[in-house]
Write a structure and sequence with these properties.
Order of helices and strands: HHHHH
Distance between the termini: 58 Å
Structural class: mainly alpha
Largest sheet: none
Number of strands: 0
Helix content: 55-70%
Length: 140
């Protein structure tokens, strides 16, 4: 090694790529917020077993209110307390799809998309109200 090699300082590291959420610490779903998706899945899978027999002749409107109401409620709670992510709406679709296999006929498959959309809109609204923003949508 020559003296000129020792006098040179190491080259600076390249700047990291800019992130749309730069300046914000990455928020981690923890505590009871972590339970929100699991409780939602349990509601989708277990609640129709109670609602359908209890509603009797009104089982169809009660079931529709349950599946879309659960998506809206849990989406709003998740958006208010965490932030908008696509994971909860997709889990709402999965939860309804499992419930469809257990309780509903094949014609109800289209409601899977409805559950995803309702949960996504509610989660987005919750994140907009709370000001938490998201990676999927710009902050309002």
């Amino acid at each position: 090694m020559s003296d000129t090699d020792l006098d040179r300082s190491p080259e600076p590291a390249p700047e990291p790529a800019t992130d749309p959420g730069e300046g914000r610490a990455r928020e981690v779903r923890g505590g009871w917020r972590r339970a929100t998706p699991y409780v939602m899945l349990a509601v989708y899978i277990l609640a129709p077993a109670a609602v359908i027999p209890l509603a009797g002749a009104h089982a169809v409107p009660a079931s529709i209110a349950l599946v879309f109401g659960a998506g809206a409620l849990f989406g709003l709670v998740d958006g208010l307390t965490f932030r908008f992510t696509w994971s909860l709406p997709l889990l709402a679709g999965l939860g309804f799809f499992i419930a469809k296999l257990l309780y509903f006929n094949d014609d109800a498959t289209i409601y899977t998309l409805g559950c995803i959309l309702v949960a996504a809109v509610a989660a987005w609204a919750g994140s907009a109200i709370s000001g938490r923003g998201s990676r999927g949508f710009p902050e309002v």
